[in-house]
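Q: Sequence in, structure out?
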Amino acid sequence: MNFDTASDFLAAVRDYCESDLARCVVDIDRSDTIPEHVFADLAALRLFVFTSLSDDGPVLPDQERTDLLFRCLALISETCPAVAKAVMDQNLGQIGMMREYGNPALQAKLEQIRSGSKQAAFLMTEPQSGSDPSRFTTSFEEVPGGVLISGAKDWITGAARRQYFVTLAKAAGSAGDFGLFFIDREKVAADRIRVLDRKHKLGLRGLGEYRVELENVFVPEAHFVIAPGRGALRKVMGHYNLKRCGQAVISVGATQAALRTAYGYLQERFQSAGGIPFQHTLFVFADLFSRAVAARSLPHSAALEILAGDASGVPASIAKYVCTELAVEVTSKLAQLCGGNGLSDKLPLERLMRDMRMLTVAGGASEVLQATIAKNLGRLLSAAVPEEGRWERQVAEPVVAARPRLEALVPAEG
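A: Exactly. Output:
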């Protein structure tokens, strides 16, 4: 599809979610499978490797593209967070790195992903260390024309059905000499890659998470996404942090859906009494809604800092931590208010609650994010205290200077 304006694009995504996708949500959750026709629909909407509004349209600037993608993720997650995560996976993280660093051969692979004919998985998490690269054991050995990669990755989303693997590995015997490598599974002997141990998860069902074992998998130099070197891991984490912002956006969308669902249900339930008759219940809604509005801009402002070069991981950590934990709290409290139906398949609240609980672990557990924030507290707190008599210059002027960039990413009300 081609779109003339961003408004047309967002309207088409909303229409699809409220009609076609809404009819599939229960089956996706129960079968733990996203149907192929949903992936085809998403590709037709330009939601894979999203860069422009039309085939002959200009490539959007990073800020505008990220803003529109985040708005789409929020819309989709109001209907189905698992599908929103599938869209995120084909835009951020490994896809962003291929876009920014990939050679022409890898750019051609992106075109296949954009069309929907292929998808890429990101092989980062490891069984013994989660997403902590300092403890990774997957390694590469340099050989003529490329490298051989061996090791195990775990909780790899979509590993069974995705044809491309983008894999983080470090030089054998090295503590920090990382590289990022593109693996085309069709070019590798079947016994060199084993996909096994599908997880039966609490939520975010339909994507499929697996353990992936690599044994002397040859990757030619033409398929180096980021060549091995000391600066490679910093580049990887920049894009990984942008992916954490995407997960925060998904949480924001699910929070909005939960609030709307519970409020509508309780209005209907107590309609004979003139709407919701309990002041305490209304105060709970007021509190949760206010905090949801406050959290809404966090992923956008964090993404802005990352695009501007932030390498600390703090903005992404704050956004994901606040938004995912808030989503868990909101869905849990609202399910409680709705009684038995809130904890059953009569309402989507129990599914949203399960999905949001998964997001507090996926892509960096809340405790990992807290550790990143805590590690930087000294710098963050000292930076927030202006020198005596210099408040206007240190605080007011930077805020004014940042306003045009912030307005480009913070979503409009409604």
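The longest strand covers residues 146-157.
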